[in-house]
Amino acid sequence: METPQAPIGLRPPKRKACMLCTRSKRRCDKSAPQCLRCLEKGVVCRYPPSRRMRLVEVDEDDSPPTKSYTPRDTPTTTTIPTTTIPSPSPSTPTAPSPSRPRFLPVGGRDPLNNHRWFLDPDSFTRLHRDIIPDPNLAYGLSDSYGEETLPDFIARVQGWLQTWSGTGHSPLIHRDLYRRHMPTSMQDAFTSLTSYHAMTPATKATTLRIIETRAAALVASHTHDLDTAGITMVGANQDLEPLANAVVMLDTLTHLARTQALLSYALIRLFDGDIRARAQAEEHIPVLDAWAAQMLDSARLDCAAAEMLGLPPHDAGAGAVQPTSNNPFALPHENENTPAAHAAWVLAESVRRTYLTSVLMLAVYLTLKRGWTMCPGGVACLFVAGPWDAPTAHAWRDAVRSVAADGKVQFLLMQSLETWRVFEGVAPAEVDAFGKAVLAVSHGLEGVVEMWEAGGRALVSGVVGVC
């Protein structure tokens, strides 16, 4: 008599060898949370996530405008033609009615009953809007977009870095991100930003030379990652196992710190006006692009590994973000630990914001320089005000619950390519500074005003933003 087997969809996924063992072509015992070889070496053990099929129920009445998105397998070249984007169907920005399904954050987890709502691996997936490139089109932005929009975005990001170096908190770098440990790369970036904002005409040349030296040293210290991974972007459908070569050797916080540091140097040197500084910063554009992608992939791998570990419940008062492994996202699956969840959320949201800021900054620079750019794509992030600026972990939890209870839960983690939803369901005062910057660069300064006045139903002329 044959033993009955579980349906295919209910069978537990078969675990592959960990990434370090795969890279070194050694036998892996596949034990959790760490294999024996990684445990003996004292290194981070990461397993590639299993491939899953997701079934999502969609209400046709709430489907977005006619747009399609593709994973970031191959960058898409985009120009700024003057075509018309179809507007979303009219709707009233009120709380969801019983007949209309309530949108959830990317990943489909409700913050009201799942404290790990921000840790779905899919929330770290990069998407692109399908646009047919036409390199022969002349550079030009539509009237509703306005040529002042692109410099405005750069000025906002520069202001965030200056605010961080002066107060320790900004829409890009959270006050708690480096509270326990600040990597050397960010220590150098912090002192460089402080020196740059305090420089005089007499000290400008010296300050730029110091920044040049630190940027070069930062890139040189990670050349092995570029040699291994190249500068290509990784798509959502690509097998994650080969990413071990470029991602597994660094933890997510180190990925984040080096990307933020290089972003800081790039913002100074690309837009300072110094010819030498700009020329040298342009050489690091592919590096920043690659590091941003690797950072996002590292966070995605950590989330997938935490999902597979199946950690047992832990004491809610333990206070540790890493209860059984080096994974920063290894939170207990049942009991909520607010300080640990807040620390993990700060890291996760910082990764998403840093990635989006980096690729948008590069896209804006290249658009200003030559009139077109590679489509930067989008990633999920926070758009609503409250959680990011919450002064404590418990204030953050209350802010998240307040947003969810108010029927705006989808804006806690929303795909940045779907910003038209913001105009339908959120008032301008309810959007945080980072979200407003993304809206402005996506729709134009004047376009944002028009969209809000029309409740998201206005037609915006031209390709939305730089993508």
UniProtKB/TrEMBL annotation:
Q: Which GO terms describe its molecular function?
A: DNA-binding transcription factor activity, RNA polymerase II-specific; zinc ion binding
Coiled-coil stretches noted in the UniProt entry, renumbered to this chain? none
Biased composition regions of type Pro residues, renumbered to the chain: 87-99
Q: Which InterPro entries does this one have?
A: Zn2-C6_fun-type_DNA-bd_sf, Zn2Cys6_DnaBD
Location of the Zn(2)-C6 fungal-type domain:
17-47
What SMART domains does this protein's entry cite? Answer: GAL4
One Pfam match: Zn_clus
Question: What keywords are assigned to this protein?
Answer: Metal-binding, Nucleus, Transcription, Transcription regulation, Zinc
Output the SUPFAM superfamilies linked to this UniProt entry. Answer: Zn2/Cys6 DNA-binding domain
Residue segments, region Disordered: 56-107
Which stretches does UniProt call biased (Low complexity)? Answer: 71-86
What this protein is called in its record is Zn(2)-C6 fungal-type domain-containing protein
